[in-house]
Amino acid sequence: MVLLESEQFLTELTRLFQKCRTSGSVFIVFNTDDGRTKPVPRKGHIEGFEPADNKCLLRATDGKKKISTVVSSKEVNKFQMAYSNLLRANMDGLKKKDKKSKNKKSKATQ
Amino acid sequence: MSGSFLASDFRNTFENCILFVVCSGVRVVLKYRHCDGNLCIKVTDDVVCLLYRTDQAQDVKKIEKFHSQLMRLMVAKESRSAAMETD
């Protein structure tokens, strides 16, 4: 799993989308990130560790290549704009609502 | 445990998802297949799973907005309650 900076992550994510246009899926997963580096022991707790509350871990894969990045509350605004644009630009293969078309084909547009 | 739901229910479960995200241990998964032309978003805490699948282009904007809001919630700290109130 490659941990990247936000900008690099976005570049690599664009590449993943482009790679998967003809076949395959792009999976994007995100969850909260505590900032933990060690596994939590069954009994007791890690000394000197306070779970961070303001970070989010974003992961992406095409089934083979894995990339990830951590987004904190400071970068979220800037990152989010770029990320939203990226998603909208790349997720363009879905069916458009066309009332006039007689023969609705289920194949996505190229 | 899991089930896909219709566009009409999407809005209703939106609020449920917001409450979900406030607790930790929640993940959001987005799956996009260009070759098949479908998009799927899943919100789960490993107990309950909410899944929405679509092949309509008009849903992309909705899902992307929803996705952004969830991300903001996860990242927000004390401002969580304020973020929950805004739609």
From TrEMBL, chain A:
Keywords: Cytoplasm, Phosphoprotein, Ribonucleoprotein, RNA-binding, Signal recognition particle. GO terms for biological process: SRP-dependent cotranslational protein targeting to membrane. It is found in: Cytoplasm. GO terms for molecular function: 7S RNA binding; endoplasmic reticulum signal peptide binding. Heterodimer with SRP9; binds RNA as heterodimer. Component of a signal recognition particle (SRP) complex that consists of a 7SL RNA molecule of 300 nucleotides and six protein subunits: SRP72, SRP68, SRP54, SRP19, SRP14 and SRP9. Component of the signal recognition particle (SRP) complex, a ribonucleoprotein complex that mediates the cotranslational targeting of secretory and membrane proteins to the endoplasmic reticulum (ER). SRP9 together with SRP14 and the Alu portion of the SRP RNA, constitutes the elongation arrest domain of SRP. The complex of SRP9 and SRP14 is required for SRP RNA binding. This is Signal recognition particle 14 kDa protein. It comes from Alligator sinensis.
From TrEMBL, chain B:
InterPro entries: Signal_recog_particle_SRP9/14, SRP9-like, SRP9_dom. This is Signal recognition particle 9 kDa protein. Component of the signal recognition particle (SRP) complex, a ribonucleoprotein complex that mediates the cotranslational targeting of secretory and membrane proteins to the endoplasmic reticulum (ER). SRP9 together with SRP14 and the Alu portion of the SRP RNA, constitutes the elongation arrest domain of SRP. The complex of SRP9 and SRP14 is required for SRP RNA binding. Residues 36-74 form the SRP9 domain. GO terms for cellular component: cytosol; signal recognition particle, endoplasmic reticulum targeting. Gene3D superfamilies: Signal recognition particle alu RNA binding heterodimer, srp9/1 (3.30.720.10). The gene is SRP9. Keywords: Cytoplasm, Ribonucleoprotein, RNA-binding, Signal recognition particle. It is found in: Cytoplasm. Heterodimer with SRP14; binds RNA as heterodimer. Component of a signal recognition particle complex that consists of a 7SL RNA molecule of 300 nucleotides and six protein subunits: SRP72, SRP68, SRP54, SRP19, SRP14 and SRP9. Its main location: cytoplasm. GO terms for biological process: SRP-dependent cotranslational protein targeting to membrane. Belongs to the SRP9 family. One of its GO terms (molecular function) is 7S RNA binding.
